[in-house]
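During the second year of the project, the team shifted from modelling isolated chains to modelling whole assemblies. The rationale, set out in the original proposal, was that interfaces cannot be judged from single-chain predictions alone. As a representative example for this report, we include one of the complexes processed in the last quarter. Its constituent sequences, exactly as entered into the pipeline, are reproduced here:
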Amino acid sequence: SPALDAQNLSKRYGGVNGIQAAKDVSLTVEAGETVALLGPSGCGKSTVLRIIAGLEVPDSGAVQVGGRDVTALPPEARHIGLVFQDYALFPHLSVLDNVAYGPRVRGLPRPTAAAQAREALALVNLAELGSRRVTELSGGQAQRVALARALATASPLLLLDEPLSNLDERLRAELRGELRALFARVGAGVLLVTHDQREALALAGRVAVMRAGQIVQQGAARDVFRHP
Ligand code: ADP
Ligand code: ADP
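Output from the structure prediction step:
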């Protein structure tokens, strides 16, 4: 079964005269595949991502993760790794404890959670920094910690909302390359939200283009950008 199978997601904000933020959005992401949800600001990308994550209740539609129907489950029971734009880390916790937080919340004993966190930190090349406070990190390091935290959920699905948008161009280019290699290593399904065509092309094998709440085009990244 695919890492993600989202079927006919619809969401309207503000009643009948409100905004149709998502309309009949269907998306699948296979294990090991990276899909970019691409479109201009306000087209509904974050709404779709939040519905999949369980942070927003859709008016209609269903979400399956790894073959399991999670439509009615709260976010923490969906086992989805999340990286949002403003990667809020816990400033009072060490890097390791930030990454171990998810496994701890799931009820794993401290040593097991710490071991999972160390593994995730190694994946993002931060194995040495576990005991640092997150306030001592550079922007790029902090973003990698956020990624490690998402990876430590050990889920079949990773959701990233504009993961590089808060970084300067140099860091963005550096992390773009790292992310691609990382996605290949972890083998999870990745759904990436971005308004940046270059980012979509660099990171995703498949692209779904969104306009005004609907997916208007979907296909291999190279084909989508050849015939815009
Ligand atoms: P994107 O992620 O592509 O920028 P969003 O999903 O954030 O788009 O927003 C889609 C539309 O829904 C926009 O018009 C936005 O203003 C509106 N919207 C998003 N969240 C809310 C909300 N909580 N209440 C009302 N309108 C919202
Ligand atoms: P993004 O840039 O990821 O689309 P936004 O900055 O648009 O996110 O939205 C940030 C938060 O504000 C979200 O929780 C969203 O639900 C809420 N929001 C966005 N647009 C509106 C709106 N028109 N009315 C009320 N809340 C909104």
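The chain has seven helices and ten strands. The beta strands are 4-13, 19-29, 34-38, 60-65, 68-69, 80-83, 157-161, 189-194, 206-211, 214-220.
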